[in-house]
Amino acid sequence: MESTTGSPFPKVAQLFSALLVVVFLCISYALCKAFYNVFFHPLRRFPGPKSWAASRIPYVLAQIDGKPHKHLLALHDKYGPIVRIADTDLSFIYPDAWKDNNGH
User: Fold this and answer.
1) What are the coiled-coil residue ranges (predicted)?
2) For the chain: N or C, fewer Cβ within 10 A?
Protein backbone atom coordinates (compact mmCIF):
# COMPACT_ATOMS: atom_id res chain seq x y z
CA MET A 1 0.00 0.00 0.00
CA GLU A 2 1.34 3.41 -0.91
CA SER A 3 1.89 6.11 1.64
CA THR A 4 -0.20 9.24 1.25
CA THR A 5 2.56 11.37 2.77
CA GLY A 6 5.23 10.22 0.32
CA SER A 7 6.75 12.45 -2.30
CA PRO A 8 5.20 12.34 -5.79
CA PHE A 9 8.61 12.85 -7.38
CA PRO A 10 9.48 9.17 -7.91
CA LYS A 11 6.36 8.78 -10.07
CA VAL A 12 7.14 11.98 -11.97
CA ALA A 13 10.70 10.77 -12.52
CA GLN A 14 9.42 7.45 -13.85
CA LEU A 15 7.00 9.19 -16.21
CA PHE A 16 9.73 11.53 -17.39
CA SER A 17 12.08 8.58 -17.98
CA ALA A 18 9.39 6.75 -19.93
CA LEU A 19 8.74 9.86 -22.01
CA LEU A 20 12.46 10.18 -22.76
CA VAL A 21 12.58 6.55 -23.88
CA VAL A 22 9.60 7.06 -26.21
CA VAL A 23 11.13 10.23 -27.69
CA PHE A 24 14.48 8.47 -28.14
CA LEU A 25 12.81 5.52 -29.88
CA CYS A 26 10.84 7.80 -32.22
CA ILE A 27 13.95 9.76 -33.18
CA SER A 28 15.93 6.54 -33.65
CA TYR A 29 13.21 5.13 -35.90
CA ALA A 30 13.12 8.30 -38.02
CA LEU A 31 16.91 8.30 -38.42
CA CYS A 32 17.03 4.60 -39.31
CA LYS A 33 14.24 5.04 -41.85
CA ALA A 34 16.02 8.03 -43.41
CA PHE A 35 19.27 6.04 -43.60
CA TYR A 36 17.42 3.14 -45.25
CA ASN A 37 15.69 5.46 -47.73
CA VAL A 38 18.97 7.05 -48.83
CA PHE A 39 21.24 3.99 -48.96
CA PHE A 40 19.13 0.81 -49.31
CA HIS A 41 15.76 1.75 -50.84
CA PRO A 42 15.06 0.37 -54.36
CA LEU A 43 14.84 3.97 -55.67
CA ARG A 44 18.28 4.91 -54.28
CA ARG A 45 19.89 4.92 -57.75
CA PHE A 46 17.69 7.73 -59.08
CA PRO A 47 19.23 11.20 -58.84
CA GLY A 48 17.93 13.86 -56.52
CA PRO A 49 18.78 15.66 -53.31
CA LYS A 50 19.54 13.30 -50.43
CA SER A 51 17.33 15.29 -48.06
CA TRP A 52 14.36 14.77 -50.39
CA ALA A 53 15.18 11.04 -50.67
CA ALA A 54 15.48 10.61 -46.91
CA SER A 55 12.06 11.93 -46.01
CA ARG A 56 8.83 13.31 -47.42
CA ILE A 57 9.21 16.49 -45.36
CA PRO A 58 11.02 18.61 -48.02
CA TYR A 59 8.41 17.65 -50.62
CA VAL A 60 5.56 18.58 -48.27
CA LEU A 61 7.25 21.90 -47.48
CA ALA A 62 7.49 22.59 -51.22
CA GLN A 63 3.76 21.89 -51.49
CA ILE A 64 2.95 24.19 -48.59
CA ASP A 65 5.12 26.90 -50.12
CA GLY A 66 2.62 27.04 -52.98
CA LYS A 67 5.25 26.74 -55.70
CA PRO A 68 6.01 23.03 -56.04
CA HIS A 69 6.27 23.34 -59.81
CA LYS A 70 9.18 25.79 -59.43
CA HIS A 71 10.95 23.50 -56.97
CA LEU A 72 10.49 20.50 -59.28
CA LEU A 73 11.67 22.45 -62.34
CA ALA A 74 14.81 23.51 -60.48
CA LEU A 75 15.44 19.90 -59.46
CA HIS A 76 14.98 18.71 -63.04
CA ASP A 77 17.35 21.42 -64.29
CA LYS A 78 19.97 20.21 -61.83
CA TYR A 79 19.47 16.41 -61.86
CA GLY A 80 17.94 15.56 -65.25
CA PRO A 81 14.67 14.14 -66.62
CA ILE A 82 14.03 11.73 -63.71
CA VAL A 83 14.33 12.99 -60.13
CA ARG A 84 13.60 11.32 -56.82
CA ILE A 85 11.39 13.85 -55.05
CA ALA A 86 10.43 11.91 -51.92
CA ASP A 87 11.19 8.66 -50.16
CA THR A 88 8.87 6.71 -52.50
CA ASP A 89 8.22 9.14 -55.39
CA LEU A 90 9.86 9.99 -58.69
CA SER A 91 9.20 12.96 -60.94
CA PHE A 92 9.42 12.62 -64.72
CA ILE A 93 9.71 15.70 -66.91
CA TYR A 94 8.65 14.04 -70.19
CA PRO A 95 4.99 13.10 -70.81
CA ASP A 96 6.05 9.91 -72.61
CA ALA A 97 7.37 8.60 -69.30
CA TRP A 98 3.75 8.23 -68.14
CA LYS A 99 3.10 5.64 -70.86
CA ASP A 100 6.39 3.87 -70.23
CA ASN A 101 5.80 3.80 -66.50
CA ASN A 102 2.11 2.91 -66.35
CA GLY A 103 1.62 1.06 -69.63
CA HIS A 104 -1.29 3.24 -70.81
Assistant:
1) none
2) N
